[in-house]
Design a protein that fits this description.
- The complex is a heterodimer of chains A (309) and B (333).
- Chain A has 309 residues and is mainly alpha-helical.
- Chain A has 14 helices and no strands.
- Chain A has a single domain, classed as MetI-like fold (Orthogonal Bundle).
- The N terminus of chain A is likely disordered.
- Chain B starts with a helix and ends with a helix.
- Helices cover 71% and strands 0% of the residues of chain B.
- Classes of the chains: A mainly alpha (309), B mainly alpha (333).
- Chains A and B meet through helix 1, helix 2, helix 5, helix 6 and helix 7 of A and helix 1, helix 3, helix 5, helix 6 and helix 7 of B.
Chain lengths: 309, 333
C-alpha cells in the first residue's frame, strides 16, 4: 500500500476536514441505494445499536435502583429511583483511594509513554538507520506475548531489584507505572510515527536550516504540528493503563490497589451490592469514555495510517 | 551541504563550528562525526528500547528459563536456586494421558474454539456495520459514537456489567429469554456449565467488534470514490459494488485487523478472570486463565511457564504462517 494513504487519512480526519461533511460526503454517493439495501441497513444497524447499548442501559438503570430491586427479578424501568448508590460506593469499599491510585498510575504511565514514544517515533520517521526494521518489528511483536508468560518473571525481577537496591518496585505505584507504560508504547510509537510522517518534512528541514538542532526542531515544529495525534495517543495510553487487570492483581498491595482490582471488593462482602457495582462501574468509565469519544477521529486516523501500511 | 551537516549537528552545538567546516581535518574527527551522525537516532530510541527490554524481553527470557526449573512456592524467595528440571515440565504438560496434560489440551481446544468464534463474529459485525454506515445518512455520527462506546469502557467494567446481566435470578438475559421472549422453558445458568462458554464468547464479541468497526471504517476512507462512480456508470448495483470493490480494497486492513483480534482474543486474560475469578468452569477454561491457575493458585511456576512457552510458540507459528499466506495472496492479487 502507498504510505501516502496514511498521511492522507490523518489529515482527512483532522479538524481541517470540517465542511467536507456537507452534501453527499464521501462514501459511494451518486445513486440512491435500492430499498433492499436501505432495509438491510435499518434492521442490522438497529440490532447492533441494541447490542451495543443494552449493557450500558443496564448499568445506568441498575445504578439508580435500591438494593432490593437489583437482587430480585430484573426490571427494565427503575422504580423507585434513588441516587443512594452513588453515595454509598465511596464507603462500602475505599473507592476514593483506588480511584486516586488509578489516576496517578494511569496519568504517569500515559505521560511517560508518550514522552518516550515521541523520541522513538521521531527517530523512526525522520532517520534511516541500521536495525530500523528489526526495531519496529520487535516492538510490535511484544503485542504477541501472553501477559501471563512475563507476569511472574517481571514480578520476580521487581522483587530482586527491590532487594538489591532498595527501590521498591513491587507493590509500589512506580512498578505499575513502568509496566503500563511499556504496554501502550508499541501502539504509541506506531501511531506517532505515522502522525509524524504526515507532517511535511520541509517544515522541520526549514527549522534545521534556521539553525535549530534536531531536538529543537522536534519540539518547535513537529510536535506542535502533530499535537492532535499526540493527545489521541495519550488518551489511548491512559485507557490501556486504566483497564489493565492482570498486572494490577499481581503487583499491587492494599495501599496501592487500583480500580481494576478494587471493584471486585463490592462482591466479596456478605452481600453483592449490584446497584453499587453498577454505579461504581459508571463512575470509573466516565473519564475514559469521555476522552475516547472526544478523540475518536484522531484515533481512527492513527490506527488506519498504521494499518494500511 | 551546509543543510545536511547542520541537520546532524549536536543539539547543544558545542563544537558545531569545527564540525561544520568544509572538511573534518583528522580521521578521528570524521569518526566522531559519523558516530554522532549515526548515533542520534539510536539515542532517541534508547529509552523505548531499555523499557521494552526491562518489561518484555528480559522477563520473557527468564520465563523461558523458569520453564526448565522446578520452581514451586518453596523456592520463591530464592528463585535462582530452584533445581533444574530439564524437559520435565514440558514432558508433564504435553503428556495428554496425564491429568495435567489432558487438562491443558482441553483448555487449548476451548481457547481455539473461543478464539475462532469470537474473532469471526467480531470481524463480521464490525465489517457489516462499517460498510452500512459508509454512505452518509441522518444519524450516522450518533451511530458511530454508540458503536464505539463498548470499546471505550474499561474492560473490567464491561465484564462486570455482563456478569450482572448473566445472573440466574436477577439478570437481564434470563428475563429476556425466559419471561419476555419465552425461548427457554426455565431460566438457565450462564456462568457455570456449558453456557459459560457462550457467555465468554458474547462478551468478547461485544468488547471487540467496535475495534473491527473502527479499523474497517478507517480502511473505507482510503477507497477512491472514482472507483464507485466508474462502476455505477457501468451499471453495477450497490451489492455488486460491495462485493467487487469494497471487500477487495479492505484486504490490507483485514490482514492486520484479523491478526490483532486473534492475538488479543487468544491471550485475553481480563475477560475470563473478571467473569469467573481465578478458576473458570471447565467449558470456558481458556488457556490464559488455566496458566494463571497453574502458576498462582497451585504455585507451580515451572509448569505454568512451560505452558506459556508452548502457547507462545503456537502463536508465533500461527502468526508466521498467517503472514506468509496472506502476503502471498496479496501479492498475487
Amino acid at each position: 500500500m502507498p504510505s501516502g494513504l496514511g498521511a492522507g487519512a490523518a489529515r482527512r480526519a483532522g479538524p481541517r476536514r470540517r465542511g467536507r461533511g456537507r452534501g453527499r460526503g464521501r462514501g459511494r454517493g451518486l445513486m440512491a441505494p435500492p430499498p433492499s439495501f436501505i432495509w438491510t441497513r435499518r434492521i442490522v444497524l438497529t440490532l447492533l445499536t441494541l447490542f451495543a447499548l443494552i449493557p450500558v442501559y443496564v448499568m445506568v438503570s441498575s445504578s439508580l435502583k435500591p438494593l432490593q430491586d437489583v437482587t430480585s427479578t430484573f426490571r427494565w424501568i427503575p422504580d423507585p429511583l434513588t441516587l443512594s448508590a452513588y453515595h454509598d460506593i465511596w464507603f462500602t469499599v475505599p473507592l476514593g483511594r483506588y480511584f486516586l491510585n488509578s489516576l496517578i498510575v494511569s496519568t504517569s504511565a500515559a505521560a511517560a509513554s508518550v514522552a518516550v514514544a515521541i523520541f522513538a517515533a521521531y527517530a523512526v520517521s525522520r532517520y534511516g538507520f541500521r536495525g530500523k526494521r528489526i526495531f519496529t518489528t520487535a516492538v510490535l511483536a511484544t503485542q504477541m506475548f501472553p501477559g501471563i508468560l512475563f507476569a511472574l518473571p517481571l514480578f520476580l525481577i521487581f522483587v530482586s531489584i527491590g532487594n538489591a537496591t532498595g527501590i521498591p518496585l513491587y507493590g509500589s505505584r512506580g512498578g505499575l507505572i513502568i509496566t503500563y507504560l511499556t504496554f501502550s508504547l508499541p501502539f504509541a510509537i506506531w501511531m506517532l510515527t505515522s502522525y509524524f510522517e504526515s507532517v511535511p518534512r520541509a517544515l522541520d528541514e526549514a527549522a534545521l536550516v534556521d539553525g535549530c538542532g534536531p531536538v529543537r526542531a522536534l519540539f518547535r515544529v513537529v510536535i506542535p504540528a502533530a499535537l492532535p495525534g499526540i493527545i489521541a495517543v495519550t488518551i489511548y495510553a491512559f485507557m490501556t493503563a486504566w483497564g489493565e487487570v492482570l498486572f494490577a492483581s499481581v503487583m499491587t498491595n492494599n495501599t496501592t490497589r487500583t480500580l481494576a482490582v478494587g471493584l471486585a471488593d463490592y462482591s466479596t462482602q456478605n452481600n453483592v451490592y449490584w446497584n453499587q457495582i453498577m454505579a461504581a462501574s459508571l463512575v470509573v468509565s466516565v473519564p475514559v469514555v469521555a476522552g475516547f469519544l472526544l478523540m475518536q477521529r484522531y484515533l481512527v486516523a492513527g490506527l488506519t495510517s498504521g494499518a494500511v501500511k | 551541504m551546509t543543510v545536511s551537516l547542520r541537520r546532524d549537528a549536536p543539539p547543544a552545538g558545542s563544537d558545531a563550528g569545527r564540525g561544520r567546516g568544509p572538511a573534518p581535518r583528522s580521521r578521528s574527527g570524521r569518526l566522531l562525526q559519523r558516530i554522532r551522525k549515526g548515533g542520534l537516532p539510536y539515542l532517541f530510541l534508547l529509552p523505548a528500547l531499555l523499557l521494552e527490554l526491562l518489561v518484555h524481553f528480559v522477563p520473557m527470557i527468564f520465563g523461558i528459563l523458569i520453564s526448565f526449573k522446578q520452581l514451586t512456592l518453596f523456592f520463591i524467595r530464592n528463585w535462582t536456586g530452584a533445581p533444574w528440571a530439564g524437559l520435565g515440565n514440558y514432558r508433564l504438560v504435553v503428556d495428554v494421558h496425564g491429568a495435567i496434560g489432558s487438562a491443558l489440551l482441553h483448555s487449548f481446544v476451548v481457547t481455539c474454539a473461543f478464539t475462532v468464534l469470537a474473532v469471526g463474529l467480531s470481524w463480521l459485525f464490525g465489517t457489516v456495520a462499517a460498510i452500512l454506515t459508509q454512505d452518509s445518512f441522518r444519524g450516522r455520527g450518533a451511530l458511530r459514537t454508540i458503536f464505539l462506546t463498548p470499546f471505550a469502557l474499561p474492560v473490567y467494567a464491561s465484564v462486570i456489567i455482563w456478569a450482572f446481566m448473566f445472573q440466574y435470578n436477577n439478570g437481564l438475559v434470563n428475563e429476556l429469554l425466559h419471561n419476555v421472549l419465552g425461548i427457554t422453558s426455565r431460566p438457565s445458568f450462564w456462568l457455570i456449565g456449558h453456557n459459560s462458554f457462550f457467555a465468554l464468547v458474547i462478551i468478547s464479541i461485544w468488547r471487540n467488534w467496535p475495534f473491527a468497526f473502527l479499523c474497517v471504517m478507517a480502511g473505507l476512507q482510503g477507497i477512491p470514490r472514482d472507483l464507485y462512480e466508474a462502476s455505477a456508470i457501468d451499471g453495477a448495483g450497490i451489492w455488486q459494488q460491495i462485493r467487487r470493490i469494497t471487500m477487495p480494497s479492505l484486504r490490507a486492513v483485514n490482514q492486520v485487523l484479523v491478526l490483532v483480534l486473534f492475538l488479543w482474543t487468544f491471550n485475553d486474560f481480563t475477560t475470563p478472570f473478571v467473569l469467573f475469578g481465578a478458576s473458570a468452569p471447565s467449558p470456558a477454561d481458556v488457556v490464559s486463565i488455566h496458566i494463571y491457575n497453574a502458576s498462582f493458585i497451585n504455585w507451580n511456576f515451572g509448569e505454568g511457564s512451560a505452558m506459556s512457552v508452548l502457547m507462545l510458540i503456537f502463536l508465533l507459528l500461527v502468526t508466521a504462517v498467517y503472514l506468509l499466506g496472506t502476503s502471498r495472496r496479496r501479492n498475487n492479487a
